[in-house]
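note to self: dont lose this again. the chain is below, predicted strucutre after it. 275 aa total, dont forget to put it in the shared folder this time
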Amino acid sequence: MIELRKLVKHVGLILLALVMLYPVLWMVVSSLRPDNEIFRRPGLILDGLQVQNYGTGWTALVSPFGHYLLNSAILVLACIIGNLASCSMAAYAFARLDFTGKRLWFAIMLGTIMLPIHVIIVPQYIMFSQLDWVNTFLPLVVPKFLATDAFFVFLMVQFIRGLPRELDEAARIDGCGHARIFLRIILPLMLPALATTVIFTFIWTWNDFFSQLIYLTDPEMYTVPVALRSFVDATVSTSWGSMFAMSVVSLAPVFLAFLVGQRYLIRGIATTGGK
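---
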């Protein structure tokens, strides 16, 4: 009876996984179909391979699609460095330092998590426009160096609070100040939380469409999400096969990042959630 329950549970999980994966599989299959068959056939069976969609999509826009992949890679790398540097220092301050209004500022920081981007995008755009930063990566990168991602600050605060304070005290006896304690003791022990920050920052920045659409108007500055939007044109027929082909290409780094970092991702979330 127990074996039957396990069998039913596993079959149910497999069916649920197939339902969730169907849109992705359909996109991959559609990238290998001619445009006139994509929306006529919802199934996953191919009669032939239209691999030309990948070559056509790669050169369909103003620049080769590799140019937009490079723009996204530069933006993602800068955002990762910014989040790692600023959020880790802010987290150390909240977890280990005592200063006036610490609880109040921590509560305000947590409150910013509930603010949707649509609430602050207008004043942000006005400010960055006055700084002449529109159509550059600066509006997307500079805030990351100011610890604006409260989720990662909270994640690291919870992790640091779980580290024994005896480590800090022993280092302080040896003459270490806060800078050396942070760099030589706390930071190396934060690897799971830092890896979680890297993976989430990579995925969220790589897939971010709204902010990049607002600030990047020059086609030479387009990132992958904005470039994919350029395939859809209301004035001419859309090359769906090419768009799906480049969508598959753009998803490959995300899948690779998750597969490589899932061990650290699970460990980082697990070790911060229980503190």
